[in-house]
Amino acid sequence: MNATRRGIITALPIVGAGVLGLGFWRILSGMRTGTFDPRAINNPQVGKPVPNFAIPGLPGLGDGFTDAELRAQTRPVLVNFFASWCIPCVQEMPGLRAISRDLPIWGVAYEDKPENASAFVKRDGTPYARVASDRHGRVAIDWGVTGVPESFLVMPGGRIVWHGSAALDPALFESEIRPHLARL
Amino acid sequence: MFGPEQGHFALALACVLALVQFVLPLWGAARRNGRMVALAPYLAVSQLIALAMSFACLVLSAVRDDFSVQNVAANSSIAKPLLYKITGVWGNHEGSVLLWTLILGLCGAAVSVFGRNLPDILRARVLAILGGVSAGFQLFCLLTSDPFERVFPAPMDGQGMNPLLQDPGLAFHPPILYTGYVGFAVPFAFAVAALIEGRVDAAWGRWVRPWAVAAWCFLTCGIALGSWWSYYVLGWGGYWFWDPVENASLIPWLTGTALVHSAIVVEKREGLKIWTVLLAIATFSFSLSGTFLVRSGILNSVHAFANDPARGVFILGLLALVIGGSLALFAWRAPSLTSGGLFSPISREGSLVLNNILLCSICAVVVTGTMYPPFMQLLFGRTISVGKPFFDSATIPLTLPLLLAMGVGTALPWKRAQLAKTFSHLYAATGVAAIGVVLCFWKLSGILPVACGILAIWVIAASVSDVLRRLGLGHTGVRGMIARARSLPRSSWGAALAHIGAGIVVLGLCGMSQAEHAIVEIHVGETRSLGGDDWTLLDVHDRIGPNYKAMRADIAIHHNGRLVTIMHPERRDFTTQNQTTTEVSIHTNLITDLYGVIGDRHGSGANTTYVLRLHRNPLAPWMWLGGLVMAIGGAFSLSDRRLRVGAPKRSSIRNMARA
C-alpha cells in the first residue's frame, strides 16, 4: 500500500465522523428552533383532500362546519385541533391570535366538554374564524391526529398540504406555512 | 462537612486537577521533563479523591432527605426505602453524569496504581488523555447539569422516583454499564498515547488488552442486566427492543469485542496495529456518542432522560473535541505505523480478521438502523421507524458465519494452518453438531432459529473439544490431563468459557424465538391452557404495600394434572406518582420460564373478569446466564499470569531505553 492510499484510508474515519457530527448539529439546531421534531410522525392525510365530516359548534360560538364548507373556501385555511385540557394548546393561543391576522384559522375542540372548550376559547379572545366540537374524537381519527395541538393547512378546493404537531408561533408560521401560501 | 456546596467545590477542584493532569504530563513528556511526567499518577489519584468526596456529598444529601437540593427534591421522597435513596442518585441525568465522571476518575487511578510496570512516559500520556476527557465531562456536569443546585424555598417532601426504577436490578445496572462504557476510555487513551508516540508494538498490545477485556466484561454484564430488567420489570415478555438506548450499548460492545480479539494479533504477531488503534478509538467514541446523544433527545427512545437541546450542543462540542481530535491524530499519525508479521488467510490471525470483519459489519448494520430515522427526517423530511424486522433480517445472516468461525478459529495455529489437520481436531465437535441438527429440527421451527441453534451447539462443542485437546485427551492419562490443566494458560480457559457463553446466549435467543403467549380474559376459577400447561386463576385479592396499593392474583399451573407452581403476579398502583406498574411473576426451571402478568379488572360482582397475559418462554434464562458465563470467561482471562505480571522485562527495558 503506498503512502497516499494509506493517508486517504486513515482519513476516512474522521470524514465519516465529521459528516455524522454535522448532521447531529443540524438536528440539534432544528430542535432548538422547532423545525425538527424527533418524535414527529408522518401524517398520511398530507397531499390528500380533507376527509368527510360534519361537526356541531360550541355553545355561544356559532355553528360548526363540514368538509363541504371547508372545500368551498377560496382562501387557504389553517385547521387547528385543540383541547382545553392541553397545556401546549394554552401556550399556543397567543401565537394563533397573531397568525389569524394573516390566515383564517378554523378550530376543532378535540375530546373536550363543549362548555369547557367554549370557555377556553373565549377566555383571552378567540383566534378562530369558526370553531366546532369533535366531542368523541371521531373526526380527529379520520384526519390522522395523534394528539393536540395539531394543525393542517388546507388549500382552496380542500387539499391538505401541510401538517404540524408542535405548538405554533409566528416564527414557525413564517418558516413552515408561509412558503406554502407564497406558492399560490 | 459533606453538604452540597462542599460537593460542588470538590467537583470544581476535581475539574481543575483533571485539567492540570491533561496539560502537565503531556508537556512534560514532550519536553522530556521527568518531574512533570512523574506528577501524572499523583494528579490522577487526587482527582479521584476529590470526585469521591463530591459523589459522597450528593449521596449524603439524598440519604438525609435534603430537599433544598433540586436534584434530590425532583427524584426522591421521605417514604422511599434507603437503598433506593442511594441508588436513586444515579437514576437521573445530573447524578448519572457525576457517576460517569467518578468512574472515569477510578479508571485513571487504576492506571496509576496497576500501571507501575508501564514506561513512565507512556503512562503519563495515557493519564493525560484520561485527564482531558475527565475535565471535559466535569465541565459539562458543572456548567449544564449541576447536581448540587439548590432550590428555594425547599419543598417539604420530594416528588419521588419512578416506581419502575425502584428495583434492585436497575439500581446496579447503571454503575455496571457505565463502568463498561467508561472502561473503554483506557484503551482509547492508550491508542491516543501510542499515536502521539508514533509506536505500537507487542508490548502495547499486551498492556491494552486487559483494560479492554475488563471493560468488555462490565459492558457484557451491564447489557445482560439491562435486558433482564426489561424482561421481568416491564412485563412485556420481551428482552430486547432494538431501542436506541439499547443499541447505544450494543454498538460499543460489538466494536469492543472486535478490539479484544484484534489486540491478540498485535500482542502475538505485531499485526493489525492500525486497525486495533482505530478500534480502540472507535469503541470509546461509540460509548460516548451513545450515552450522550440519547440524552440530547436526538434519538427517539422509550428511556426518557430530561431532554435539553442546549445540553446537546455542549455535548456535541465535547464529542467533536474528543472524537474529532483523536481521529484527526489518527489520520495524521497512523500511516507511519509499520505493520508487522505476515500470515496466510487460513490461520489464527486470518480467523481473527474474519471475526473483526463480521463484528464490524454487524456493528455497521446496527449503527445504520439506529441513525436512519433521524437522518431520513433531516434530509428528506420523512419520518420512519426502523425496528425488529430490519435488525433481525440484517444481523442474523452475519451472525451465522461468525458462529461458524468461532468454532474453527481457536483450533487454527498461528501464521499458517493445514486444513486437513485442523479439521481432524474438529471431528468430535462436528459429530456433536450433527446431533444438534436433529435436536434443532425437532425442537425449533423457522430456518434462522434452526441454523443459529445448530451453530450455537457447534460453538460450544468446538470450544469444549479445543480445551480437551489442549489437555491432551487421548494422549495422556487423567493425571497427565490434570497436570496440563494446571499449566494451561488462564486466558485459554477464559476464551473457551467466553465462547461457550456466547453459544449459550444464542441458544437462549433461539429458544425465545419459539416463545408462546396468550392474552386471556377469565373469571376466577377458570382455566386456560398454553403450551401444554393449564393455568387456573384461583383468586384475586387486594393488598396494601409501603407506598402502593396492589391487586394480587393467585394462579395455579398444572402440567398433566401435576401442580407445577402457584404464582402471584401483581398490579401495583403508586398513588403519589399516579402510576401503575405490573409485578411479573416468573417460575423458572432454568429450561423454561412460565411468566404471568395480571392486567385490568372488568365488570363487577359475579361477572368480574380479569385480563391475564401468560407466556411460556423456552430457554429464556440462558440468555442472561450465557452473558454471565461470557463475563466470567473474560475475568478468567484477566487473571492470567502473563497479564498480571505485565510486559516481560525485556520489552520494558527496551521501551525505557527508547523513551
From TrEMBL, chain A:
The keyword Disulfide bond applies. Residues 44-182 form the Thioredoxin domain. GO terms for biological process: cytochrome complex assembly. The chain crosses the membrane at residues 7-28. It is found in: Cell envelope. Gene3D superfamilies: Glutaredoxin (3.40.30.10). Pfam families: AhpC-TSA. Keywords: Cytochrome c-type biogenesis, Disulfide bond, Membrane, Redox-active center, Transmembrane, Transmembrane helix. Coiled coil: none annotated. Its main location: other. The keyword Transmembrane helix applies. GO terms for cellular component: outer membrane-bounded periplasmic space. One of its GO terms (molecular function) is antioxidant activity. This is Thiol:disulfide interchange protein CycY. It comes from Gluconobacter wancherniae NBRC 103581.
Automatic annotation (TrEMBL), chain B:
Its main location: membrane. Required for the biogenesis of c-type cytochromes. Possible subunit of a heme lyase. Keywords: Cell inner membrane, Cell membrane, Cytochrome c-type biogenesis, Membrane, Transmembrane, Transmembrane helix. It comes from Gluconobacter wancherniae NBRC 103581. It comes from the Bacteria. It is a multi-pass membrane protein. GO terms for molecular function: heme binding; heme transmembrane transporter activity. One of its GO terms (cellular component) is plasma membrane. This is Cytochrome c-type biogenesis protein CycK. Residues 90-296 form the Cytochrome c assembly protein domain. Belongs to the CcmF/CycK/Ccl1/NrfE/CcsA family. It is found in: Cell inner membrane. PANTHER family: CYTOCHROME C ASSEMBLY PROTEIN-RELATED (PTHR43653), CYTOCHROME C-TYPE BIOGENESIS PROTEIN CCMF (PTHR43653:SF1). The chain crosses the membrane at residues 6-27, 39-63, 97-114, 126-145, 176-196, 208-230, 250-267, 274-293, 313-332, 353-375, 395-414, 426-444, 450-472, 493-515, 619-639. Residues 316-641 form the Cytochrome c-type biogenesis protein CcmF C-terminal domain. One of its GO terms (biological process) is cytochrome complex assembly. It holds the Pfam family CcmF_C.
